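Submission sheet (multi-component)
Chains listed below:
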Amino acid sequence: MVKILYFASFREQLGKADEQLPADYDSVESLLQSLADRGEVWQQALVNNPNLQIAVNHDVADRATPIEAGDEVAFFPPVTGG
Amino acid sequence: MVKILYFASFREQLGKADEQLPADYDSVESLLQSLADRGEVWQQALVNNPNLQIAVNHDVADRATPIEAGDEVAFFPPVTGG
Amino acid sequence: MMEQAFPQIKIQTEDFDLSQEVAAMRAGHKDIGAVVAFVGTVRDINEGDEVSILELEHYPGMTEKALEKIRQEAHQRWSLENSLIIHRIGKMYPTDQIVLVAVASRHRENAFYAAHFIMDYLKTNAPFWKKETLPHGEERWVDARVSDQEAEKRWATA
Amino acid sequence: MMEQAFPQIKIQTEDFDLSQEVAAMRAGHKDIGAVVAFVGTVRDINEGDEVSILELEHYPGMTEKALEKIRQEAHQRWSLENSLIIHRIGKMYPTDQIVLVAVASRHRENAFYAAHFIMDYLKTNAPFWKKETLPHGEERWVDARVSDQEAEKRWATA
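Outcome: structure written.
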């Protein structure tokens, strides 16, 4: 399984804070394509969004980052702390 | 009268924290020349000292600064606060 | 507990006392001549609107790791005796303290640069998100600032 | 009393509490997003020698005026909400606090620059002098540093 997390405006837009998915994806890119199939709101937030930020196992990642079983993948907007 | 103040190492070298002198000097330069006549230690501290700092009435001054009755003139080494 | 893995990083809902935190950071490091402490506070105005509540969300686990990485980078760039980062989460109100970055060094220049660097990197690299509530109850997520991106870039090394 | 003429300048023998002083400086200024506080402390080593006592002498009257001038210059150069300078005089010991410069502004960059500027100018323009006592009782006046002169020059305007 792969754990997926959504933060801040993404969590609200997608109506979900986290989920577990089968480890059927070789990279963030293929995971994103699969999530985009869920509909317009997913497409907008995760594929057509130049501000999408990605982390894999708590490290900054990008669409090309490989993923495997047990990984934690997070999607979120640009950070605004401090 | 003119009030003269000596601070830090100057006060210790010259053995004096302050004194009142008649207002017989038209500038810091003429006051310094007069003080230098007191001897070697005064000459060293006040005339042959590239590090001499001068203030007149609480403002940074130099040898050319005019002085008049009632002024407060201070001599001290480079500052080391903070 | 993440606090044990990264003792100089604290993520907490409660407020902090500046004097106590700085004293604790200095303790056991006698050869300190300079401390620079930055405190970020909740402004009552943002983007021209009055703000009633500011809510901070974060990504537990990644936050601590990201902040410790920034702190270590500061210690590599400048000679520092110690440093500390505290960031609050949850609901805060105008004038509340949000974040503390404190740095101790022998000489002041290193402490000033390192504290500024840590804040600039924290702004663009630590996974925190702010949501504002306006007086009539409207909520909105705070937008990232281009000026924060620019601020980070100034520290880029060749 | 000089304290009334320049309420944001304090010359005192007693120690100060960082939290209390920063809170007092912020009070009544709600539109603050950033506070930078610099604390200078007594190091236990100077020029390679152990230091037991540090004694601070100043020029009453000129000190307050010089510090207020530096503070006003900072307010002219950067957009600041408030600022405060506290400098202790008399005998101090390793790890003691000597000086506090605290600056509050809307955005962090102004507070960082202004606090650094005030400290650099204070080092070369405020009439304070330090005398060290070494462990065997030897006393010596601390020499001014060339690095402090260089630090001030960086802020020169064209």
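Remark: Chains B and A do not touch (no CB pair under 8 Å).
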